[in-house]
Design brief:
2 copies of one chain form a homodimer.
Chain A (H helix, E strand, L loop, with lengths): L25 E11 L2 E8 L9 E2 L2 E3 L6 H13 L5 E8 L11 E8 L15 E5 L17 H18 L11 E2 H12 L5 H11 L2 E8 L7 E6 L8
Parallel strand pairs in A: 1-6
Antiparallel strand pairs in A: 1-2, 1-4, 2-3, 2-7, 5-6, 8-10, 9-10
The first copy, chain A, binds a DNA duplex (27 and 27 nucleotides) through helix 4.
Chain lengths: 240, 240
DNA sequence: TCAAAAGTGTTGTTTATACACCCATGT
DNA sequence: ACATGGGTGTATAAACAACACTTTTGA
């Protein structure tokens, strides 16, 4: 697979290429992220059929007749999580996902951000799904730590993109409930960044950016001072 | 067309969608940019066949058998400009480019940056190509200022992406010859940003970023002080 | 009164912006 | 000597990073 990052293309000769057309298979898949219990999780599905039967993979399927790519991705997301109206963005299109599928297969990847508590995973025996911590991915049937196709690379790319996005957009709204504490918000950012952040600077930053605003409500979790609840200024994706 | 920018997906019901599969047409197109005579230009092709016969469009074609997407894009680039080994990056994949083509058509867009003087345009009567200033796009046969398909939106998106990239990468190397003056470099940045930049601050910035370095060579253009020649520290794409 | 998470300001450093004059050359 | 583009530095403002103590609550 060619990594989905900027690079020079080694200009191969164009001889006897591109002249012969065909109708490749078109698939759409969705990298679904959530944050739960201090960690970033991704939804994977264990394949119940060939190829890669028994391996864990990013959920996806073929593009349906008369649906756009965005619609196909949203459909996949609903099928696997039951949620709709969340942040969903096209990631990259892979033209050579693996060597076992027929030449010319094209897979359009999306990534989605969902609130853990809004999700209900489908009950299925043959193609089960489960959440995995981003640093504790499951093993293949052979016992090695690997996913079907080139899905590990895809995940890495999706994570890189998510980290960028978090810096200059408000997309975190899609990972949180309508009201949340500053600590919950910070946990989301820390889980994705993969490092601890300073409490005071974090608060200053998100308030200065204007992506969240305080409410009058407070919430009491345990034997300590109650926390003020915040809410997103907008629940539409916005570049700050 | 759905704009290739972040947005919420309106979750349509998944009823009778996605179950029926098909083999959509897969096309690859390349937005080719260059900078020439103080301005940013894009290469367009006048379509010699239906649909949109006689309209100007972004060059592209169908994905060939047994070539990857990157290879198809590089092939297209060579066919239209003769250049290879330039900056070429996947842009976005469009699933509903226009309403006239059969449902399910998928078009993978790339964008490329080429040095004007390296390009030799093919001589063709039926499908001619030409450079157009980004703010003086050609008209349709009906005389309106519009391109085939949704190509105007695609161009706008490509330009937005290019502007971003220029800020934090060294991709400008692909627009310039091996040796160039600081003014030439600044012209490239100004053409793409669409605004004038301060000479001293610009120089400081590119040197501090380390993307270019001075050489011992100078060049004399006219009746004034000779200019020092610079060269890119690396001609591989790099994120600064 | 103790433990646990919530909440709050200041200082120093780095980065970005604004801005004006001299230099080397050909005519 | 003059016209032309090449080349340089400083001061201010803004953004970011580091850092420690007090508050509120339940047990």
């Amino acid at each position: 697979m060619q990594l989905p990052r900027a690079r020079d293309v080694t200009g191969k000769t164009a001889s006897n290429k591109g002249t012969d057309h065909h109708q490749p298979t078109v698939a759409v898949f969705v990298v679904i992220f959530t944050v739960h219990e201090q960690g970033l999780k991704v939804l994977l599905i264990r394949r119940g059929g060939e190829p890669f039967k028994g391996w864990w993979a990013i959920p996806g399927g073929r593009l349906g007749t008369d649906e756009t790519l965005d619609e196909a991705a949203a459909r996949k997301l609903v099928e696997e999580t039951g949620v709709r109206d969340v942040y969903l963005e096209q990631l990259y299109t892979f033209g050579d996902l693996d060597k076992t599928t027929p030449a010319g297969a094209v897979a359009i990847g999306y990534f989605a951000l969902v609130n853990y508590d809004s999700v209900s995973l489908p009950e299925r025996e043959d193609w089960p799904t489960a959440w995995f911590s981003i640093d504790e991915l499951p093993a293949s049937p052979a016992g090695k730590l690997e996913l079907a196709f080139n899905n590990k690379d895809v995940l890495d790319y999706a994570l890189r993109r998510l980290r960028y996005k978090l810096e200059y957009t408000n997309v975190a709204y899609s990972l949180l409930p309508p009201y949340f504490t500053m600590s919950q918000l910070q946990t989301v950012y820390e889980s994705i960044a993969g490092k601890k952040l300073d409490k005071r600077n974090f608060r200053k930053r998100v308030l200065a950016m204007g992506i969240v605003k305080p409410t009058e409500k407070t919430v009491l979790f345990g034997a300590h001072r109650p926390a003020k609840l915040y809410t997103f200024s907008s629940r539409q994706p916005q570049i700050i």
